[in-house]
């Protein structure tokens, strides 16, 4: 109860003046003041998917840095929980965008990272591109330092990487489960177990009506606070 009370204080409804905010001063600011309301839209289209994970701006180390590739940053942490850059750095799919409510409006994804199947060689995500698995798209909120993620589980390339049944909730739960374990990023940073809290009220439970692939969600968003890494 205490932890939820603290989160309620730092997850402020609405966005304060960006000029008065110090990054890392809040877990996140309610993005539903933005136009897309926790939905990531296919760029140039009307299809959308839920944004279902928030990596807290109160995370320790450099995870809340806007440069995803900085040492000890969001890429390092995601590598520690079994994700990596796309296969050989190539992107063949579409892009999505999101309005985090930080005043910048609709912004294209900063990254898409794919499950690396515990392969530290840097080509593990090629396996995901071939046989399917987990992937996350990342969007940064400048006012809090939080990363908003759209996580989902997709089918293999032979099925055009369509989302599996219940794939949004499955993808979200995969990120949360691995976050509770931690691991080692490719830059040598070691992350202990993160704190994971369920947030309701940001995403409405939905049977799939309107969502891309007609796949629904239970409406839960996982708020993850990453501890300070060691070994960096």
C-alpha Rg (nearest Å):
16 Å
Helix/strand structural class: alpha+beta
Which strand-content bin applies to the residues?
Answer: 15-25%
The chain-level mean pLDDT equals 86
| The number of domains | 1
Question: What is the count of DSSP helices, taking H or I runs of 4+ residues?
Answer: 4
Flag low-confidence runs: 1-10, 12-21
Q: Helix share of residues?
A: 10-25%
| Spatial strand sequence of the major β-sheet | 6-9-10-11-5-15-14
Protein name: Secreted protein
Organism: Umbelopsis vinacea
Signal peptide: 1-18
Keywords: Signal
Q: Would you mind describing this structure in some detail?
A:
- The protein is 16% helix and 24% strand.
- The strands form 4 sheets. It has a 7-stranded mixed sheet, sandwiched between helices. A 4-stranded antiparallel sheet has the order 4-3-7-8, with no helix packed on it.
- The N and C termini lie far apart (33 Å).
- It has one domain (43-225).
- Strand 10 and strand 11 (147-154) form a beta hairpin.
- By secondary structure, it is an alpha+beta fold.
- It is built from 4 helices and 15 strands.
- This is Secreted protein.
- Keywords: Signal.
- It comes from Umbelopsis vinacea.
- Residues 1-18 form the signal peptide.
Quickly describe the structure.
By secondary structure, this protein is of the alpha+beta class.
Keywords:
4 helices; 232 residues; four-stranded antiparallel β-sheet; globular; seven-stranded mixed β-sheet; alpha+beta; single chain; disordered N terminus; 15 strands
């Amino acid at each position: 109860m205490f932890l939820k009370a603290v989160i309620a204080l730092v997850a402020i409804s609405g966005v304060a003046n960006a000029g008065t905010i110090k990054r890392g001063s809040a877990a996140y600011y309610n993005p539903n003041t933005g136009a897309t309301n926790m939905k990531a839209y296919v760029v140039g289209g009307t299809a959308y998917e839920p944004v279902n994970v928030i990596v807290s701006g109160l995370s320790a180390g450099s995870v809340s840095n806007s440069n995803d590739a900085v040492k000890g940053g969001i890429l390092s942490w995601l590598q520690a929980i079994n994700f990596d850059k796309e296969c050989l750095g190539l992107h063949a799919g579409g892009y999505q965008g999101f309005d985090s409510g930080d005043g910048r409006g609709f912004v294209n994804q900063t990254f898409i990272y794919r499950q690396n199947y515990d392969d530290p060689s840097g080509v593990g995500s090629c396996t995901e591109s071939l046989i399917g698995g987990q992937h996350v798209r990342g969007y940064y909120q400048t006012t809090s330092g939080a990363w908003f993620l759209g996580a989902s589980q997709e089918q293999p390339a032979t099925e055009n990487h369509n989302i599996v049944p219940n794939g949004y909730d499955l993808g979200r739960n995969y990120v949360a489960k691995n976050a509770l374990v931690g691991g080692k990023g490719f830059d040598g940073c070691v992350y202990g177990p993160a704190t994971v809290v369920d947030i309701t009220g940001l995403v409405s439970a939905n049977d799939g009506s309107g969502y891309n692939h007609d796949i629904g969600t239970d409406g839960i968003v996982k708020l993850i606070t990453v501890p300070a890494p060691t070994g960096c």
